[in-house]
Here is the input.
Amino acid sequence: MRDPAFLHRLYEVLLESYGPQSWWPADSPFEVMVGAVLTQNTAWNSVERAISQLRKNCDMTPERLLLIPEEKLEELIRPSGYFRQKAARVRGLCRFLLENGGKDLSRLAVLPTSELRERFLALKGIGPETADSILLYAFGRPVFVVDAYTVRLLERLDILPGKGSYGEVQDLFMRSLPPDAGLFNEYHALLVTHAKERCRKKAPLCKTCPLNGRCDFGRSLI
DNA sequence: GTCCAGGGCCTAC
DNA sequence: GTAGGCCATGGA
Here is the structure.
């Protein structure tokens, strides 16, 4: 395990390299939630197409979205893949929101973060990453979002104490950083941006990584 | 044609 | 508690 300042320095270098990412790309908290489900194991380009089609067919509220017949909904989100599963998951999310105050989220917003997280995790098709994305990007809670990119990067940097489970990686970030939702927002987005450009599965060595030669990590970021 | 993408569920050991 | 199969489209 490296010293706690490592993750601070990593953030600074990523921010300098890529600039602010201004996530999440959505028009409303509800759209963040829908996008979080649709982007599961799916490229964002495909999700954008699906959301664009949804916008044309409803005003992106849980009420209106539930009025779309199931088969029609599947057709609209087809570009984002796993469309049958995701249609059911989005509908389940909408029902949950309607039961808890609808689009304005004011009833959910008063809940403590841990309880809010449990509520979303209880929904079928919403696992740790999707729930945390919703907490951070729709509710502004200081929760660090871990994704496959982040785990892969830390494994390659050999800075994980254990095997790199979701909770383990999340704890590492949240113990090393102040509980700042703005920081977590930007950090996760930067990790995704970096990974998309430099740390794909088939790019084991990142020769053009902006971190190369510009940090004292002892080895290049790969 | 093959690999991969901003996961999660279910089933076997 | 965890490894492996499955879900599906679209771009590189």
In short: Chain A has a mean pLDDT of 89.
